[in-house]
């Protein structure tokens, strides 16, 4: 902590991070131990965060992340889109296919930014807001592959016909972006993804990750 920072705000943010890292919530005592402060301080922090719907307490008294965090999260998507668009535009026009940034939303993959190529006669219609299961389609599978951390993984995933008949996909996960699980990919009308597309998607994912850091 420095003279320019707020100790109370710092503690409140640490509470939110601790709660975000657990699925079953934390008690006042557990938070007190993890923060190294007394229970009275924790009670005050929780009461303030509850007023803003950032924290809720269940019947058993365990504190959990509140729905107010989701409202804040919705405002993040426009910022992510803005940061990702240059790399997505370059990818779409280089490959001649629809490029997208996809993030994890609960158990689904959610397309938050989509760029169509400017020079092709036809391409796959793929819109921001499109959702699909994480275990279907290249975008979701790339995220799951990053979670598993398999050795020998080429860094990208290729699929065909999993989300739309006749369409193939290639995607690579975002790596090294704290607090964000996502992937960058392309979707195209073809039976087999050209060999150069996989490595090019990996490069685009790296560019997007750098822009988000």
Describe what is shown at a glance.
By secondary structure, this protein is α+β, with helices and mostly antiparallel strands.
Number of helices: 7
User: What is the overall pLDDT average?
Assistant: 91
Structural class: alpha+beta
Which H/E pattern describes the elements?
A: HHHEEHHEEEHEEEH
Question: Quick one: biggest sheet?
Answer: 6 strands, antiparallel
Write up what this structure looks like.
With 213 residues, the protein is of the alpha+beta class. The protein is built from seven helices and eight strands; from the N terminus they run H-H-H-E-E-H-H-E-E-E-H-E-E-E-H. The strands form two sheets. A six-stranded antiparallel sheet has the order 5-4-3-8-7-6. Strands 1-2 form a two-stranded antiparallel ribbon. Strand 6 (157-160) and strand 7 (167-173) form a beta hairpin.
């Amino acid at each position: 902590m420095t003279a320019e920072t707020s100790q109370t705000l710092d503690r409140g943010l640490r509470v939110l991070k601790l709660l975000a890292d657990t699925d079953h919530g934390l008690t006042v005592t557990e938070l007190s131990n993890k923060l190294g402060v007394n229970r009275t301080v924790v009670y005050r922090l929780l009461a303030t965060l509850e007023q803003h719907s950032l924290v809720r307490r269940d019947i058993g008294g365990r504190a959990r992340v509140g729905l107010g965090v989701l409202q804040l999260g919705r405002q993040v998507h426009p910022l992510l889109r803005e940061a990702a668009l240059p790399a997505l535009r370059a990818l779409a026009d280089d490959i001649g296919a629809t490029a997208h940034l996809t993030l994890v939303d609960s158990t689904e993959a959610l397309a938050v930014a989509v760029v169509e190529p400017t020079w092709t006669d036809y391409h796959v219609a793929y819109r921001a807001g499109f959702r699909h299961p994480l275990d279907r389609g290249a975008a979701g599978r790339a995220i799951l592959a990053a979670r598993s951390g398999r050795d020998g993984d080429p860094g990208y995933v290729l699929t065909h016909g999993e989300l739309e008949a006749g369409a193939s996909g290639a995607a690579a996960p975002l790596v090294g972006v704290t607090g964000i699980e996502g992937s960058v990919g392309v979707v195209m009308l073809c039976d087999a993804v050209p060999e150069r597309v996989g490595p090019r998607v990996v490069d685009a994912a790296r560019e997007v990750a750098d822009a988000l850091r």
